Amino acid sequence: MGGFGSVYKGKLKDGTLVAVYVLSEESTQGIREFLTEIKTISTIEHENLVKLYGCCVEGIHRILVYGFLEHNSIAQTLLGKNHILVKGFNHHNIQFSWNVRREICIGVARGLAYLHEEIQPHIVHRDIKASNILLDENLTAKISDFGLAKLFPLDMSHISTRVAGTL
User: Is the pLDDT of residue 135 over 90?
Assistant: First the structure.
């Protein structure tokens, strides 16, 4: 979730754990990308996509509230890179078996297939990378960061996109 300043672990009134993403005022993600992310993910639910619980936009302040995913991103958990550290939660590297790695890849593929083929309008994510794949307590892959997503109408027979995303 490019450009976020801080991530905090929180709890909703019903006890649901959440990750609160507070966008930095200097963020490279503009209001357009922020609103695209909200519009895109607020109406969809899938086992392999992060769940959005809410958001706040007030002046230059922007916040997203997602379901909390215990094992953070693949970049952090598998590769040991601390792209986003959730305050109040300790992270550690996990050694994944090849079967677990395969299941993570299949989960990402299922999430992308859902976005690309099953929902209307179709969504092309455009920024799949290790830091945008999060893992829950069962190591189920969940795709996050829809800021660069593009919506495509039913009547499009093919998609040609320019280079986008993170280098």
Answer: yes
Q: In whole angstroms, give the CA distance from residue 149 to residue 38.
A: 11
Q: What CATH number corresponds to the domain at position 142?
A: 1.10.510.10
When pLDDT is cut at 50, 70 and 90, the band that residue 6 belongs to is confident
> How many angstroms separate the CA atoms of 9 and 29, rounded?
22
Between 59 and 103, the more confident residue is 103
Catalytic-residue membership of 136: no
Q: Say if pTM beats, i.e. exceeds, 0.90.
A: no
Residues 36/17, Cβ–Cβ less than 8 Å = no
Asked if residue 163 is part of any domain, the answer here is no
State the pairing for strand pair 61-67/141-143. unpaired
**149-165 average pLDDT score:** 51
Q: Which one is catalytic: 14, 127, 136, 155?
A: 127
- State the Rg of the chain over Cα: 16
Give the span between the Cα atoms of 81 and 43, in whole angstroms.
31
- Is the separation of the CB atoms in 151 and 159 below 8 Å? no
For 51, the domain range is 4-152
What pLDDT is recorded for position 76?
Answer: 82
